[in-house]
Amino acid sequence: MSDKEENLFAEFEPTSTEKWEEVLTKDLKGADYKEKLKWQSIEGIEALPFYRKEDLEKLPHLKNGVEIKTPAKWQFCEVIDKPDPAEANRLAKKAINSGADSLWFTITISPDEGVLGGDIAGTHLQNLEDLKILLDDIDLEKTDVVFDSGAGSVGILGLMKAFMQHSEGTSPQFSFLFDPFTYMAYHGRLPVEESRLNSIIGQMADESGFKTLAADGAFYHNCGATIIQELGIVLSIGSEFLARIPENKREQAAKQFWMHLSAGSLYFPEIAKFRAVRLLWNRVLDGYEIENREPLMIHASTSKWNKAIADPHNNMLRATTEATAAAVGGAKRITVHPYNTHFEQTDDFSHRIARNVSHILDEEVHLSAVENPSDGSYYIEVLTDEIAKKAWKFFQLIEKQGGYQKAVEAKIIQGEVGRSRKSKEEALATRKLVLTGVNNYADTEQDLPDELFRSTPVDSLHQSLKNPEINSERLVESLSSAYSEGATIGDVVDSFLNPQKQLYPALKPYRAAVPFEELRLRTQKIRKERGREITVRLIPIGNKKIRKARASFSQNYLECAGFRVKSHTGFDSVDEAAGELNPNSSDMFVLCSSDDEYSELVPDFCAAFGGEATLILAGYPKDNVDQFRETGIDFFIYSGSNMLNTLKEIQISLPSRGDE
């Protein structure tokens, strides 16, 4: 710090940690602030309310002088999701002209079991001609291209090699999401025979100049994994690759390895995640005695797990937070998924908004003008250390099973991620975890589409009359030759993708909002069957402060199921409410008052509004619950209850009741 900067603060005396703690202890009336004010996420990450410079002195990476350098400028990678190669090419060029630095094409190849052929989804690349159409007039010297083909990446790499033979003079930057281990987790089986897997991995590693080995951590995040689990798993996948590659080729293989990570909604922990993974990957490379290294390529994609159809424009805000965390954390490539990609066909508007997130962070926030933007944050440094320690411990758990494949076969990874998923589902159901517009502040004016999932166009794998011979020991080269001579992917798919029998449980990605969206859809169906809204009347009586709070809570709670809630400023008595409201005028009535007043109010409330209507009490006066049930209260709604289950039960009770 310069003398000028020092003088700016000369009039302020430094405040010691002890002084901060003294004030905190006084404000908390003697309670331990480290327990009382400690933040703990459902992912198992903890943080104290403040940190000081001395907290950094004990952090191993800083103590050992290890710097976490982040690239100043990221590439924005746009997903092109059109099945027709010509249309995908048109959108790709439009994306580049609008500021995209790289492109992401998904090509999902699914061999048909037991019969000839198979299917292809994503961008329908059938042969070399389709690839030429897809990449026509795209400057591959300036534009990185990612091919998301999973375990089928070998077939696409062969196609790229054939393409390059017809495009001499270019040095394209291709990345392949080749992760056969995540295929095991997703399908519960090997993508090829065990005896062939190491050969294919070795041949992919031999293709220097491309990023040909990958760990798809985003998949696990979208299955419900925690930050710690995601990092532990990608480290294990990277280690599994290196362990299967001959020692003299590991250094080059490490340079071809990249990670695809999620960018989730926990802003500061996500920043720390992207920083921690660099430390941990270097530690893995230390274990393999690899000294000549390149910076780890990290591709961050905004989360799909937390995106909703209900009030979908909130997805734009979620994606902005996530992309910012990825940029500050130092991801080299960032993909912002369009806000509507999970439930409908994306359009120019949704792609432009996604693209603009990167433009704003770059050109308005100027994040790209700053190297290591998180430097100086004690909080982020401490989080980086905590996440690194816990992720390494999870990595060791996997390694103790014998590596990634053994851990999947032993159901360790599925079990750990499954427990995390269950924990998150419970947190959403009880609103310990909030998705705005889904389990809080629902937009009742919005009708959800009948289908909650976007359909994926699928085409059959084409086959030519050719019968190419494929040498499994020279797989990429012989595939390239076959494509050059007119073979299709359908002709050769069995040479690189031959799924085995399912042997263990599979992990499946999901969206957290779906259970609540299904709830809303059922309400829409009931409403259409009855030809009217499903209505709720709030009956606020008694203590004005408490009745107002409970009426507001009840309205928010019940609107998350799509019910039409009608509020009131308040009544002086149940008789007044009964005189103003017809007991047959609503499907539900909710009594909103204080626990102390319920003993007197509940009998009159049940007598006045019982019968066909569902009667609900706002709150949970535990000493009187059984008595109130006997009196006629059907449901209790309160903070901390399982909101999802309660709303389902209320909804199920509706069709059995009479109608007007």
CATH architecture of the largest domain: Alpha-Beta Barrel
Strand content: 5-15%
Number of domain modules: 2
The number of helices is: 26
Helix content: 40-55%
Largest sheet: 10 strands, mixed
CATH class of the largest domain: Alpha Beta
Per CATH, the superfamily of the largest domain is: Methylmalonyl-CoA mutase
Shape: globular
N-end to C-end Cα span = 76 Å
Low-confidence stretches: none
Derived structural class: alpha/beta
C-alpha Rg (nearest Å): 29 Å
Layout of strands and helices, then pairs:
Blueprint: H1 3-8, H2 17-27, H3 33-36, E1 39-40, E2 46-47, H4 60-63, E3 75-80, H5 85-97, E4 102-111, E5 118-122, H6 128-134, E6 144-148, H7 153-165, E7 174-176, H8 180-187, H9 194-205, E8 213-216, H10 217-221, H11 227-244, H12 250-255, E9 257-263, H13 267-287, E10 297-302, H14 314-329, E11 333-335, H15 348-364, H16 378-400, H17 404-409, H18 412-429, E12 458-460, H19 475-484, H20 489-492, H21 514-530, E13 535-540, H22 544-559, E14 564-566, H23 574-580, E15 588-592, H24 595-609, E16 614-618, H25 625-631, E17 635-637, H26 643-653
Helix pairs in contact: 5-6, 7-19, 11-13, 11-16, 13-14, 13-16, 14-15, 21-26
